[in-house]
Amino acid sequence: MTELSSTPRTVLGRSKARGRTDRAELHAVLDAGLICHLGVIVDGSPMVIPTGYGRIGDTLYVHGSTGARSLRTAPGDTICVTVTHLDGIVLARSVFHHSVNYRSAMIYGVPRLVTDEDERMAGLAAITEQLAPGQWDYARLPNRKEMAATAVLALSLEEASVKMRAAGPSDDDEDYDLPIWAGVLPVVTTWGVPETDPKMTQDVPVPAHISGR
Amino acid sequence: MTELSSTPRTVLGRSKARGRTDRAELHAVLDAGLICHLGVIVDGSPMVIPTGYGRIGDTLYVHGSTGARSLRTAPGDTICVTVTHLDGIVLARSVFHHSVNYRSAMIYGVPRLVTDEDERMAGLAAITEQLAPGQWDYARLPNRKEMAATAVLALSLEEASVKMRAAGPSDDDEDYDLPIWAGVLPVVTTWGVPETDPKMTQDVPVPAHISGR
Fold first, then answer.
1. What residue stretch is flagged as signal peptide (chains A, B) (predicted)?
2. Which domains does chain A carry?
3. CB of B157 within 8 A of CB of B107?
C-alpha cells in the first residue's frame, strides 16, 4: 500500500478519522466515478466546473474544447479536482449530528497540457472509457480535425487526499434514549433503460457493454 | 420569469444553447440537489469541497465547523458554488460527440458570515431540510453549544448561471448511417431501504418522511 502524500494542502485539517492514506483507495474512488468537479482560478475567482475525467496509473486526464474558459487558466497555476460519491444520508437523533456517508478524492496539482499525440489519444480513451466503458472500441474514433479542437490536460495524482464516511449516526451519549428513529438512508445511483436515438437509420441492438452495465 | 444576471463570469462562454436564464430553473436545480461543490481560494490555490447547502428565497446557505479550513477563506473573497445533477450518458456514433445529460447551477459571490441568531437557525434548518426533509421538526434541535461551534455562511443567488442538456446524441451528418448504436443511458439516483441504527435503545418505526421519500 502506497501512502498518499501529505503536503500542507492535503493533510486533513478536520475529521482526520475520515482520511485515508492508501493509494489503492484513491484509485478506487476515482475509478468508481463518472464526473469530477474541477476547480480553477479565473480572473482571481474560483470556478468549479463539472466535467469528465479518466485515469491512467497515477495520472488524471481531463479534456475540453481548446476555446473553453476553464482551460484558459494561467500556465503553472494549481488546479483542484474533486470526485465525490454520496452514499447515504446519516439521520441522527440530533440535527447537529446529521451527516452524509460518502467517498471523496481531492487532487491538487499544476496540470500539464498534453502535446504528444499518442498520450492525447490515450488520455481521451481513458476519459471516454470512464463515462462509457467499451465505447472507445465501439464508436467512431476521433479524426484529425476533432483532435485539433480538443485540449487534453494531465494532472499527477501525487498530491491527493481521500476521505470517506461509511457508518451509522454518531450521537451524543445523552441523546440515545430519545424516542427518535436514527439510521442511514442509502443513496443509490443506478442505470436506467438505454434510450435508443430515434434518429437511428438502421436496426442495431443495444451493445452488451451498454445494456449490461 | 426573472432573468438571471449576466456578469462576465456568468455569461456562458461556450455551449450557449445549454444556458438557461430563468430564475425558476435555478431554484429547481438547487432544490433538487443534495450536496454542492464549494470552490474557495486557500493560500492561492483553488479548493473544491463537497458540502451540504440549503436555499431560502434567493439566498444559499452553507455551514461548517468554525474551525474548518474551507470557511477560513479571506473575508471579502469570492467563492463559487456548483450543484450538478448527472442525468445520463450520451452515447454518440462518434467518440467526439459523447456527452452527458445534466443540470447544473453555478453561483458566484462574496459570502456573508451570518451573525443574527434567527437567520443562523433558519439557515441551518434549510441545510438540514435540503438533505433530509422533515428532520428539522423531528430530531433534537441544536443547543447553544452546538450553535457556537457552527459557522453559517450566506451567499446571494444574484450572480448565477444554469446549464442543462437533456437530449439524444448530436452526431455529424455523415455518421448517422454507421452501424453503431446510439442513444442515452440514463443515470438514476434513488433511495435505498432505510438502515436502522443498531444502537437504537427503543423500538421506533421509520418515520414516513424518511420511508416515503
1. none
2. 16-172+180-192+202-211 (2.30.110.10)
3. yes
Residue B4 has pLDDT above 80, yes or no: no
How far lies A57's CA from each of A54, A121, B186, in Å?
A: 10, 15, 29
Question: Do A132 and B45 make contact, defined as CB atoms within 8 angstroms?
Answer: no
Percent of chain B residues topping a pLDDT of 90:
82
Predicted pLDDT at B16: 52
Task: Say whether B184 and A199 touch across the interface (CB within 8 A).
Answer: no
The closest of B25, B1, B59, B32 to B161, measured between CA atoms, is: B25
Q: Is A91 on the interface with B (CB under 8 A)?
A: yes
Neighbours of B205 (CB within 10 A): 9
Q: Among partner residues B91, B131, B201, which is closest to A89 by beta-carbon distance?
A: B131
Are residues B95 and A39, on separate chains, in Cβ contact within 8 Å?
no
Average pLDDT over residues B47-70: 89
Tell me the nearest-neighbour CA distance from B18 into chain A, angstroms: 14
Calculate the CA dihedral of residues A139, A140, A146, A147 and round it to 10 degrees. Answer: 80
- ipTM for this prediction: 0.91
Q: What is residue A90's three-state secondary structure? A: strand
* Integer Cα distance of A205 and B10 in angstroms: 41
